[in-house]
Amino acid sequence: MATHLVMGDPHCTPKASNDRFLWAGRVAADYKVSHVICMGDFCSMDSLSSYDRAKKSFEGRRYQKDMEHSHEALSLFNKGLGKHKARKIMLHGNHEDRIDRFVDENPELDGTLKISDLKFRQYGWQEIPYKQIKVVDGVHYAHHFPSGIMGSAISGENIGRTLLTKHKVSATVGHSHLLDYAISTLPNGKKIHGLSAGCYLNHTEHFARDTQHMWWSGLILKREVKDGNYNIETIDIKTIRREYGKR
Ligand SMILES: [Fe+2]
Ligand SMILES: [Fe+2]
Asked: What is the three-state SS of the chain?
């Protein structure tokens, strides 16, 4: 039966080491997972951030550096995976979407900067465009789900439960960087699982200096995945570093 490895937003950035991607590949191989699903914001795209443009923290950022660092991360993941074969699914998050938005705002760049510069496909990942849902073994995966007709992402303290009450299917999201999980039972006895998958990083993000302590960082294993039902196991990044960091 299917085993999914869920990697919450890893926010690859030239300011932090890519070691965690090698460790994640090793985890995927070790648990012989059938699928790896990255929840989006694989690359932070610091060079296209509108948040701190023209501030001191922006100095030294380069599009090319962001790309090269992401390629290294993708290559390390495959190295960790070794000979193990798994289906790899990459959801685009709002940070990948920065590339499209930047070109939209600077149309003269059309055809020069593109999400495909990240080379997800070349490294063996199936890509799912931002805001699209990918259903795998009955679990609905998206970077975030809308909270209502206005389309803003479900957020707050009970993301798992809210996913279930609003969307009524098994659903897994990234984006908030919080870990939250809820389970419900439909009248026919079917279990549905709502999950906010945290993130997968161990560097500090300046924009979140007053909230980062709330984030959860690690990988999530879903075993016996079928028709949206599964058994969940979390492995935090400290454990991953200890078990998979020295080989
Ligand atoms: Fe996001
Ligand atoms: Fe994120």
From this structure: CEEEEEECECCECCCCCCHHHHHHHHHHHHCCCCEEEECCCCECCHHHCCCCCCCHHHCCCCHHHHHHHHHHHHHHHHHHHCCCCCEEEEECCHHHHHHHHHHHHCHHHCCCCCHHHHCCCCCCEEEECCCCCEEECCEEEECCCECCCCCCECCCCCHHHHHHHHHCCCEEECCCCCEEEEEEECCCCCEEEEEEECECCCCCCHHHCCCHHHCCEEEEEEEEEECCEEEEEEEEHHHHHHHHCCC
Give the closest ligand to the alpha carbon of residue 143: 1
Q: State in Å: Cα 190 to ligand 2 middle.
A: 31
- The domain spans of the chain are 2-244
User: From the CA of 79, how far away is ligand 1's center (Å)?
Assistant: 26
The number of the ligand nearest the C-alpha atom of 43 reads 2
Instruction: State pLDDT tens for residues 94-106.
Output: 999 999 999 999 9
- Nearest ligand to the CA atom of 91: 1
Name the pTM for this structure: 0.97
Q: Which fold has domain 2-244?
A: Purple Acid Phosphatase; chain A, domain 2 (3.60.21)
Which ligand has the nearest atom to the CA of 199? 2
